[in-house]
Write a structure and sequence with these properties.
single chain, five-stranded mixed β-sheet, three-stranded parallel β-sheet, elongated
Length: 183
């Protein structure tokens, strides 16, 4: 017990020395809280990492010492848009979405290029929206395009779905040329 107490004190002091992560204060922004609602001018928004901690009129929100202040005069702060049907795979696609206020996308057919792009965005090495992907397209054998996942029967479909069962995909992308049985 005599050795445990000093070890606990050292650990507690070390965590205190690190302190809280810095805040970012957007000061004087025009705030849109919901699309279609009235905007709020001259607002201060305190953010830590990916969390909004406080919102209020400029001059009424306490900004802690050491915070990174962003002059928001003439700028708008708004919720990110979500595009629920995209095909994203080119390296520069991500920045185009962000430039138009889109911060999250549902990609409708996963590809190797999309997996790489999503990993780069998640790692912070490339700008872009958060990408949620469906499976690669599953279609019937009569499709007009080359389809390595041609599905002819209900058993074929069960195998395809079983192969994808533990994947990171948010949905299964079925296409129009599936037989009724396969669908």
């Amino acid at each position: 017990l005599c050795f445990a107490i000093p070890a606990l004190l050292i650990a507690a002091c070390a965590s205190l020395a690190e302190g809280p992560r810095p805040l970012t204060a957007f000061v004087g922004v025009t705030l849109i809280t919901a699309y279609g609602e009235p905007h709020r001018e001259n607002q201060t928004v305190l953010v830590r990492d990916d969390r909004i901690l406080e919102v209020g009129d400029m001059g009424e929100v306490f900004i802690p010492w050491g915070s990174h202040e962003v002059d928001g005069a003439g700028r708008v702060l708004a919720p990110g848009l979500v595009d629920m049907h995209v095909h994203i795979f080119m390296p520069d696609d991500g920045v185009l979405f962000l430039a138009n206020g889109v911060t999250t996308v549902r990609n409708m057919s996963d590809r190797a290029e999309t997996i790489v792009l999503a990993a780069e965005i998640d790692a912070g090495t490339r700008p872009g929206p958060r990408i949620y992907s469906s499976t690669p397209i599953i279609d019937g054998p009569q499709a007009d395009w080359e389809n390595p996942r041609a599905t002819r029967s209900a058993d074929d479909m069960r195998r395809r779905i079983a192969e994808l069962d533990n994947s990171e995909h948010v949905g299964v992308k079925l296409y129009e040329n599936l037989s009724r049985e396969a669908f």
